[in-house]
Amino acid sequence: MMKKLSILLCSAFLWAGTVQAQEAKTCFKNMPDSLCPLLTPVNRADFIDFLDSKMKAEVTNSFGGKSEMTELSPDYIRVNLTPQSTWQMKLLPVNDSTKVICTVSTVCAPACDSHIKFYTTDWKELPLSSYLPKQPVMDDFIAEASDSVDVYEYQAALRPADMLLMKADLSAKDATLTFTFTTPDYMEKEAAEKLKPFLRRPIVYSWNQGKAAILP
After folding, report:
1. Separation CA 206–CA 199 (nearest Å)
2. Structural contact between residues 96 and 104, judged by C-beta atoms closer than 8 angstroms
């Protein structure tokens, strides 16, 4: 009987340790410094302590500026690194016992552009294509010309959009990633207004057991 109880207790401790290891705040604290040099290990620990204490989670980063963690949940974190940049991470389930980390780094200068990476929970980088097989391209954000549209007007509106910029946002509520087309933000105001009628809505990907699919 005692032997069975010991086995059960050991199993419970192992399970609790695994669950804790796959919480966002634990992964965040254990993140290698090289992946976010702006934040020191003390900065990352202070963020967690401040939010756990219901305080504003603002720290002085390694460059002497201010960074603030604005959201923290068991599977999601968002940090305003600088006034022009943000960093997000989300734990995504691959199966009942395994999760992967998705991070989104965004810089706005002034148009926002994002970079996405995936890692194991001990921060070994994973192939992007394994978890996000296809990122949006320019044509995904621009509608085809309808029969009622002047083809020359349509082509003239598209011509200034010569660079693909897009902002990615992880959801704090579910396993989705939204891409917003930001190329118009770097264009001249008049050109952006002419392009606006031909733009599609943001593109949303949803993960199910580690596989991403575009929501209709």
Report:
1. 21
2. no
Question: Residues 48, 24: contact at Cβ < 8 Å?
Answer: no
Which tokens hold the place of 52? 């756990």
What's the predicted TM-score (pTM) here?
0.86
148-184: pLDDT as tens digits: 888 999 999 999 999 999 999 999 999 999 999 999 9
Interatomic CA distance for residues 183 and 167, integer angstroms: 10
Give the Cα separation of 205 and 169 in Å (integer). 10
Tokens 């290990």 locate to 41
Q: Strand order of the sheet with strand 125-126?
A: 57-60, 66-73, 76-82, 85-93, 99-108, 112-119, 125-126
Q: In the block, which residue shows the tokens 């998705």?
A: 102
Contact of 81 with 67, CB cutoff 8 Å: yes
CA distances for 17 relative to 4, 97, 109, 144, angstroms = 20, 12, 41, 52
Q: DSSP string covering 15-80, please?
A: HHHHHHHTSHHHHHHTS-GGG-TTS-HHHHHHHHHHHHTTS-EEEE-TTSSEEEEEEEETTEEEEE
Give the C-alpha separation, 104 to 158, whole Å. Answer: 28
Identify the segments of the chain with pLDDT beneath 70: 1-21
Which of 102, 55, 108, 101 minimizes the C-alpha distance to 81? 108
Q: What three-state secondary structure class fits 151?
A: helix
